[in-house]
Amino acid sequence: MRRRYFFFDIDGTLTDNRTHRVVPSARQAIHELQEAGHFTAIATGRAYYKTKGFAESVGIDNIVCCGGGALVIDGVLIENQPLDHEKAVRILRHADAEGIGWVVMRRDSDSVVMRDYRFLEQAGLRKELTTYLYEPEYDYEAEDILKIYLACTAENEPEWINELGHLRLSRNYVVFQYDAKKDGIIRMLRHLNADLCDAVVFGDDLNDLVMFDPAWTSIAMGNAKPELKEKADYVTDANVDDGIRNACLKFGWIRQ
Description:
By secondary structure, the chain is an alpha/beta fold. Helix content is about 25%, strand content about 20%. It contains seven helices and 14 strands. The chain has an eight-stranded mixed beta sheet, with helices on both faces.
């Protein structure tokens, strides 16, 4: 059987959004794909430290995470790309000049560093578990940066934030982070000496649009957003209705 390379989004694809647990038939399909000799991987915007435990829980050793910036093959982190340093420094300089609070992720962990308390005063605590490190002498120009959290509401976004790609995950702040899952998948396939046409991607939400590409097979879950379904090569059943396993059976990647 021709070997395929499967990349699965997490929330709404592998997991039930109501329970946040892995859909049993999705777990079964992953094991069947592996037994058939196929390659399986997670593809997510989550940081590596947030993804590692989940991947282990479903028996997957390969990960494209940090929005495509980090690659894990056979359980080994082989790269974790930081933000464009020049652009990141420019953003932080702008923020300092205008008195806008920020915190920076410089390591793949739940820790962020800050030189003052402006971010907390302007945006409050992040909803996610976060360790805040107060370092008044921190020099953001001297080392790589993985993420920047910038305090600003949608109504008060400065024009210069568009100098670097960002997401609004909270009303009170934006996140500058690596956001190129498709590029991460391509780099993974190159590491494996695999053809792009042998890749298969499963997703459900708008942030998965970037990894739906005509170079490979893109499958939208039945519970996916309409925009993703329009871009997909195939729309399967909802994830909780055995969508992943049904698609794998339909295309003959696994057998009943």
